[in-house]
């Protein structure tokens, strides 16, 4: 299978799949279990990013990765905002397993200040947003440098979202049935 499971033990990451909780913009769980999968190519890039973050005394917390097409449709049906939610008819890099939503943790396991929360649908979530504190801006730059150096590209509207280049051209879409165990209800 092209998708591999990302586990804390194998990848030395913290995993907090927000869409398996009610701590997401819909206010309800989208996934029935907090699984984390990526395409093999993205998983290889993630390993590079983890090593770079470690060199800076940081760890990565994964907030979302592969998102089944069925979940993408549920998010779009709740909030059809193309700046923050990919139209499921076009397919999302998440649905291809080559996108990851993440943040950085300090040595004590505390999330770094990024100036806006995960999935905060506001212009302050944009890369290069005005009005951020110097600390938040520096933290975003560190995350950006790590992820781009590891082979990902950024999405301008979301400081937390990174994906492999040419995702829609190079990688097929996957559904929940592609997984060894369902993520959905």
From TrEMBL:
InterPro entries: A_A_dipeptidase, Zn_M74/Hedgehog-like. Pfam families: Peptidase_M15. GO terms for molecular function: D-Ala-D-Ala dipeptidase activity; metallopeptidase activity; zinc ion binding. It catalyses: D-alanyl-D-alanine + H2O = 2 D-alanine. Its cofactor is Zn(2+). SUPFAM superfamilies: Hedgehog/DD-peptidase (SSF55166). Keywords: Cell wall biogenesis/degradation, Dipeptidase, Hydrolase, Metal-binding, Metalloprotease, Protease, Zinc. Its EC number is 3.4.13.22. The active site is at residue 158. The keyword Cell wall biogenesis/degradation applies. The record marks 67 as: Transition state stabilizer. Catalyzes hydrolysis of the D-alanyl-D-alanine dipeptide. This is D-alanyl-D-alanine dipeptidase. It comes from Thalassospira alkalitolerans.
């Amino acid at each position: 299978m092209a998708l591999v499971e990302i586990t804390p033990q194998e990848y030395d990451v913290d995993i907090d799949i927000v869409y398996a909780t009610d701590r997401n913009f819909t206010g309800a769980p989208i996934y029935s279990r907090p699984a984390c999968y990526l395409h093999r190519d993205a998983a290889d890039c993630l390993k590079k990013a983890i090593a770079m973050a470690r060199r800076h005394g940081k760890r990565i917390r994964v907030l979302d990765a592969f998102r089944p097409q069925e979940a993408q449709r549920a998010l779009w049906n709740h909030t059809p905002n193309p700046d923050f939610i990919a139209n499921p008819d076009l397919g999302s890099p998440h649905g291809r397993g080559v996108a990851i939503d993440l943040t950085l943790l300090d040595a004590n396991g505390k999330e770094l200040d990024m100036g806006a929360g995960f999935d905060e649908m506001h212009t302050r979530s944009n890369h290069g947003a005005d009005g951020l504190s110097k600390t938040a801006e520096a933290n975003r730059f560190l995350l950006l440098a790590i992820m781009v150096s590891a082979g990902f590209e950024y999405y301008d509207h979301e400081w937390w979202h990174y994906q492999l280049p040419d995702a829609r051209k190079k990688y097929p879409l996957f559904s929940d049935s592609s997984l060894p165990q369902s993520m959905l209800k």
